[in-house]
Every structure is written in structure tokens, then in C-alpha cells.
Amino acid sequence: MARNELNDRGTAAAEDSTPAGRDRRAERILDAAGELLVAWGYKRVTIDDVARRAGVGKGTVYLHFTTKEALFLTVLMRSQAALGAAFVRSTREDPTALLPSRLAERSLRSMTDDPIFRAVMVADTDTLGTLARSAPKLVGDLIEFREHTVTEYFHVLRQHGIVRTDLSAASQRHAYFAVVTGFLTFDRLRSGASGFPDIDSKADALVRTVTAAFEADTRPEVLRAAAPRVIDLFQRLVDRVREEIDRQKLT
Asked: Are 53 and 71 in contact (CB under 8 A)?
């Protein structure tokens, strides 16, 4: 092996021994895992594949992520943090972004714009079940925090009259997510069928459906009044997700 190559490896190892270096190494592993998730799907990817893609040893991956499930849940959390941060920015710029119809549209368009989100949503039910069963053990506190955030989001909207109150809060939330999940997953369930509308048509249909079923007073002044509380709720969630990502990276 050439001396320069040995020197390069020694320099890289020294850099990886610092806190910043370990964090960069963990990010490389997450990048590699995300790329393979998109290219191959969760079930086909192994830790060996991720290690090769990231240019590290298999043991190094386990230094950061205790299991395959922990690694890929962290990949998903990075995607969720980015989506949450984008929602906060949009709501600061335009309070209409906080509407359930707009939030639903953002989720649907993420199927096109965010390959990680799409890879998980179009995964087979066994894969989704594996990640769902692993999540409470690995990130249980975060799941509770997210559930609290969503509950409070609907509570704020109900307080301001932005959504209807003729359903109980629990029933309204369940119905909303049933509608959105249906739009996100229906194409996968009908795999092989033809005649599906394009993404813009699906987004328009979803917005119309959610608006008609759930929304009430959407005057600009009402949305502006609710925006600070919604922004605070989701910023706290984004911060909590980022904390969990750092914890899972074991850097």
C-alpha cells in the first residue's frame, strides 16, 4: 500500500476520533442508508451494504446505531425533521400553511419531493410493521411527544374555529389521518392498475376533500391569530426530533 494512502487513512481516522468527526461519520452512514433505502428498499439492504456505501467497517456502523431498525428509523427521522422545519418556515411566511388541507397537501407532495418519505410509504406492510413495532422501544418518548403535538395542533385549530367542532376531537383527528393516509397509500394498494391522476390532480382532490370535511373559519385574521401557537408546537417537535437523531447516532 502506498505511503500516501496510509497517511490519508491515518488522517481520516484521526478526524473521525473527534466529536465533530464522529458526527460527520454518522451522517455519512445515514446518507448511505438513505440512498440504499431509496434504491433497493428496506428489506434488501443490509448493514454490510450500508458500511460499504459509507466507506466504513460494519462494526463502525454498530458503534453509532445499535440495530438496523435504529439506523433506518433515524434516516426517517431526518426526513421528518426536514419536513417539519419546512412547515414551520412556511407558516411563518404565510399562515394559511397551518390549515389541515395545506398540511395534507404537503404530505402528499412529499411522496414526490422526498424520496425517503416515499420509500417508506410505498414499502410493503411487513416493512412498515417492522419499523412500527421497533419505534416504541427505540424512540418511545418521541412518539408520545409527536402525538401530544398533533393533539395540541387540533386543539388550537378548534379553539380558533378553524376546524369544525361537530365531531369529538379524537374522532376528527382519526378521520383526518384516515383520509390523508388513504391518499398516500391508495396507489400502492392498487399496484398495477391504470388511470391514476397526476400528482397535481391528486393534491387538488385531497385539498378539496379536507377543506370540505374539516375546515370552518379560515379568514386571514383568524389564521394569523393561531399561527404563533402552531409554529411553537411544531418547532418544539422539530427540536425534539433532532435531539433524538443525535441520541441515536451515539456520537
From this structure: no
